[in-house]
Amino acid sequence: MKNLLDPAILFFVFGCFAGLIRSNLEIPRSIAKFLSLYLLMALGLKGGFALAKTGLNSEIALSMTIAIAMAFLVPTIGYLFLKNKIDKFDAAAIAASYGSVSAVTFVTAIQYMEQSQLNPNGYMAIALVLMESPAIIMVVLLANMLRHNSETSGTKRPSLKAILHESFTDGAHLLLLGAMVVGFLSGEAGKTMMQPFSGDLFKGMLAFFLLDMGLMVAKNLKDASKNSTALIAYATISPLVHAVIALGLCILFGVTTSDTILLMVLSASASYIVVPAVLRYAIPEANPSIYFGLSIGITFPLNIILGIPAYIWMAQKFN
Questions:
Q1: Where are the beta strands (DSSP E) in 133-192?
Q2: I need a labelling partner for 151 at 20 to 30 A (CA). Which of 57, 96, 199, 243 fits?
Q3: Mind listing the pLDDT tens digit for each residue in 12-48?
C-alpha cells in the first residue's frame, strides 16, 4: 500500500486511467524523450559518484557477475519455454525483450528503496548497463540460425556488426555510460555541484515520466490482451520466476540485501525501448505488437505497482 501512495506511482496510475477513458491528455514526444534522457543521465551520475566513493571491490564484482549470468540465463529460459508455443522468431524476440532490462523500472525501484531507507548502491547502475545487450547478441545469432535452417534462408541477413553497433551506440545507452564516467571522474566535488540537477529534481521528473508511461500502457493494453493465454501467462509469471532465480543466486553467494533487491528488479524487468528498436531491424520476421505489447502492456505495470514491493519483501525475508 505504501508503494501505491508514492506520488510517482500515483501519477503512473493516473496516466493509465486517463488513457483508458480516452482522454486527450498527452505528453509531447520531444518532452517524453527529454525526461527519459534526464533520468538516465541522473542515474548514470549517481552510479559514477558511488563508484568513485567505493572503488571497485569484490562485493561489486560479485553483483556484476550475477547480473551478467542473469542476462544470459533469462533469454535462454524464455526461448526454450516459448519456441514450441509460438513462431520461433516471435519467441526469440520476446526472449530478447525479457532478457534485457527496463531502466524506468530500475529507477523507480531505487526511488522506492531510498524512500524506505534501504540505501540502494549507486554502482548498481553498472549492472543495468551490463544486462542491456547480452540478450540482443544471443537472439541475433539465434535468428540467423533459424533463417539458415528454414525456407527463408535466402533472405538477406542483417549484419551482426551493424546490429551490435546500433545496440551499443544507442543514444540512451551511451548517455548512461557517459554520465557514469563523468560522475566517477568528478567524484564528491561533482556530486555536490550536480545535486540540484541529479538529486533535487529527480523525484518530480520521475513522476512526470511515469505519467507518460501510464498513458503508453493504456494505449498498448488492448493489443497485449489479444495475445494467447500462454503469452499473457508468460508476461505475468516470468518476472516473478526470474526474480526468484536472481534471489537464489544472491543467497547462494552472499550478496547484500540492497544489491539483491536491484538484481531481482532488473531480472524481472523487460525492455520496451532499446530492444524493440533494435529488433525491428534485427528480426523483421517477428511481430512488434507481440513483444512490445507484452513488455509495456503487462509486465511493466505489474512490476511498477506490485513487483517492486514484492521483490523487496522477498529479499528482506529470505536473504
A1: none
A2: 96
A3: 999 999 999 999 999 998 998 898 889 889 988 988 8
Average pLDDT over residues 257-273: 94
Taking the complete model, does pTM exceed 0.70, yes or no?
yes
**Count of CB atoms situated within 10 Å of the CB of 84:** 8
Which CATH number does the domain housing residue 115 bear? 1.20.1530.20
Cell numbers for 231: 503469452
Sequence-distant (6+) residues with CB within 8 A of 46 are 122, 125, 183, 198
Q: Which pLDDT belongs to residue 307?
A: 95
- Binned at pLDDT 50, 70 and 90, residue 150 comes out as low
Residue type at position 63: S
Phi, psi at residue 119, to the nearest 5°?
50, 70
Query: Residue 197: inside a domain, yes or no?
Result: yes
Q: Which amino acid is at 135?
A: A
CA distances from 218 to 55, 148, 226, 298 (A): 42, 38, 14, 10
Buried b / exposed e across 185-213, counting CB within 10 Å, b at 16+? Answer: ebeeebbeebeeebeeebeebbbbbbbbb
Q: Is 239 exposed, middle or buried (0-12, 13-18, 19+ CB in 10 A)?
A: buried
* pLDDT of 276: 79
271 within 8 A of 77, measured Cβ to Cβ: no
| Owning domain of residue 247 | 28-149+157-318
**Cβ atoms of 209 and 39 closer than 8 Å:** yes
Does some domain include residue 118? yes
Task: Indicate if the pLDDT at residue 241 is higher than 80.
Answer: yes
**In what helix (H) or strand (E) does residue 9 lie, and over which residues does it extend?**
helix 7-20
Residue 73 lies in a domain: yes
